[in-house]
């Protein structure tokens, strides 16, 4: 393999984590040409798929238990302990240093990284029905089922689940664990050692990376049954395909390169899975991983029919600089890097379980041509804006002065209007009085003559006086009064034009006899 060096072109880097082994493949692509730039397998100091716990922390969590003690539920206590993944990362110095040196070889931020993970950091869950749902509602339903199966209180985020439709109609949920240790190490290096790693583009499963790589380099008919065999250092796995679609992903085989009889194990597992899935004849078996090291092709060729095509993976669209290496061990890492360079290829499973938080943290503000032009024009725009703001302020000040002056004029005019309203009210009262006087002027002379005559007659007759005068009709008046002598009453009646006497009563006023009378008189009677 080529030694690491600083590259000055855009690269796609695929990383596959398998226990203590880290597989790396670096590809460079231009148009439809893809070439292998670098590939290696690194042995880590500690398994990245397990979260290490300090022994002294556990001793603090677990008290001494006597034989008579009741059982203790450790789950809640362990989850509440103060140790974190960052503390574990700080202790894993050798792994951190190795990954730091690895990422330093690709310093260009335009380079991109895709990470493939295996169980237990990624696992699969199968469902026979979609409950008549699709899209976001279907994902929420699957997350609800996953939470029931997991530990109590564990939260599964939507960005940790993607749903794949299988060939037999089932649904396969690809689920990422809530903690990805490699991501934690990269985050630790970025914050503590100011590492500027390439852009993290995606996280997918090792199985989907292999399927995408095979689909990009092989052509199958729709009914053709193929098996992708991955033989790793620590585990193995079988992927069954019908055409270019996933039919089933087998349970993980807990045996790898160093296991005895690994060839027999894989051979028997192929037949077992075929029987369980009730599959017809297998046409193709594609070998990946460390299959070449154990001679798996020769072993299976002796055991299986000649009609089955058995071979190590062939990448017809991959160019290799210098001597062509055996790419079989790097198939998963190559598949991850390939998915970055060829995102629009047909028959590809678009699986990306990268946490949304990391996606947001990596977003960068980009300026195009128009953006740079606007940036250069910003000082000029700021200057003109400052001038315009000054002009607007002066205009506002002038408007405020004008407004205050007009408010003073308005107050003065309002005071004048109030005085005018008072004068108008007085004028209205005078007009009303004049109208009353005008209405009374028609009978003023008649009343004046009547009153003059009444005053004269009472004065001439003497010892008689009028106390009340009431209008009775248009020309009649009711007179009420008193007389000292009874004989004076008829005299007044005759003097007032023969008024009709209504009644006469004898009354006592101050021990003296007087005569109260009522009579009707005519206003129109003439004076004598």
Unreliable stretches (pLDDT < 50, length at least 5) are: 1-8, 51-91
Query: How many domains, as an integer?
Result: 3
Q: How does CATH name the architecture of the largest domain?
A: 2-Layer Sandwich
Number of beta strands: 18
pLDDT averaged over residues: 80
CATH topology of the largest domain: Nucleotidyltransferase, domain 5
> What would you call the shape?
rod-shaped
Radius of gyration: 56 Å
Number of helix segments? 14
Please state the structural category.
alpha/beta
Q: In percent terms, what proportion of residues is strand?
A: 15-25%
CATH class of the largest domain: Alpha Beta
Strand order, sheet with most strands: 8-4-1-2-3-14
What would your notes on this structure say?
This protein is 40% helix and 24% strand. With 528 residues, the protein is α/β, with parallel strands linked by helices. The protein folds into three domains: 12-55 and 75-121 and 177-364, 2-Layer Sandwich (Nucleotidyltransferase, domain 5), CATH 3.30.420; 371-441; 448-522, General secretion pathway protein M, EpsM (Gyrase A, domain 2). Helix 3 (85-91) packs across helix 6 and helix 7 crosses helix 10. The longest helix has 72 residues, at 369-440. The protein is rod-shaped. Mean pLDDT is 80; it is low at 1-8 and 51-91.
């Amino acid at each position: 393999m080529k030694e690491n060096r600083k590259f000055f072109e855009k690269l796609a880097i695929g990383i596959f984590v398998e226990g203590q082994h880290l597989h790396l493949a670096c590809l460079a692509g231009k148009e439809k040409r893809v070439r292998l730039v670098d590939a290696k397998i690194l042995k880590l100091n500690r398994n990245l798929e397990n979260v290490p716990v300090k022994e002294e922390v556990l001793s603090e969590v677990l008290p001494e238990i006597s034989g008579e003690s009741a059982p203790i539920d450790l789950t809640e206590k362990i989850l509440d302990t103060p140790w974190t993944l960052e503390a574990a990362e700080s202790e894993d110095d050798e792994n951190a240093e190795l990954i730091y040196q690895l990422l330093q070889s690709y310093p260009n931020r335009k380079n991109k990284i895709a990470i493939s993970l295996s169980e237990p950091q990624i696992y699969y869950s199968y469902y026979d029905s979609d409950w008549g749902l699709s899209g976001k509602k279907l994902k929420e339903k699957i997350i609800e089922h996953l939470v029931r199966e997991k530990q109590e209180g564990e939260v599964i985020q939507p960005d940790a689940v993607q749903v794949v439709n299988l060939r037999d109609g089932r649904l396969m949920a690809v689920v990422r664990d809530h903690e990805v240790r490699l991501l934690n190490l990269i985050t630790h290096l970025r914050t503590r050692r100011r590492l500027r790693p390439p852009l993290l583009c995606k996280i997918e499963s090792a199985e989907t990376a292999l399927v995408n790589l095979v689909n990009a380099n092989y052509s199958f008919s729709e009914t053709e049954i193929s098996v992708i065999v991955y033989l790793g250092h620590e585990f193995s796995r079988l992927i069954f395909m019908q055409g270019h679609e996933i039919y089933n992903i087998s349970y993980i085989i807990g045996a790898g390169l160093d296991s005895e009889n690994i060839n027999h194990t894989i051979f028997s597992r192929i037949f077992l899975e075929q029987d369980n899935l009730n599959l017809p004849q297998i046409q193709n078996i594609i070998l990946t991983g460390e299959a070449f090291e154990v001679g798996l092709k020769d072993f299976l060729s002796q055991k299986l029919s000649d009609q089955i095509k058995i071979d190590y993976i062939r990448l017809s669209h991959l160019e290799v600089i210098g001597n062509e290496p055996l790419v079989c061990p790097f198939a998963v890492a190559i598949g991850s890097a390939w998915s970055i360079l060829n995102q629009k290829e047909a028959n590809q499973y678009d699986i990306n379980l990268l946490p949304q938080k990391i996606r947001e943290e990596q977003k960068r503000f980009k300026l195009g041509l128009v953006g740079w032009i606007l940036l250069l024009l910003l000082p000029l725009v700021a200057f003109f804006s400052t001038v315009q703001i000054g002009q607007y302020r002066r205009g506002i000040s002038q408007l405020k002065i004008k407004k205050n002056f007009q408010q003073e004029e308005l107050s003065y005019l309002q005071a004048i209007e109030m005085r005018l309203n008072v004068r108008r009210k007085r004028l209205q009262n005078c007009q009303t009085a004049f109208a009353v006087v005008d209405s009374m002027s028609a009978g003023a002379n008649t009343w004046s003559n009547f009153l003059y005559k009444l005053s004269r007659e009472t004065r001439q007759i003497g010892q008689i006086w009028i106390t009340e005068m009431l209008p009775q009709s248009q020309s009649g008046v009711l007179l009420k009064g008193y007389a000292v002598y009874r004989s004076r009453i008829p005299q007044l009646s005759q003097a007032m034009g023969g008024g009709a006497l209504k009644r006469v009563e004898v009354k006592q006023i101050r021990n003296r006899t007087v005569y109260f009378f009522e009579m009707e008189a005519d206003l129109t009677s003439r004076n004598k």
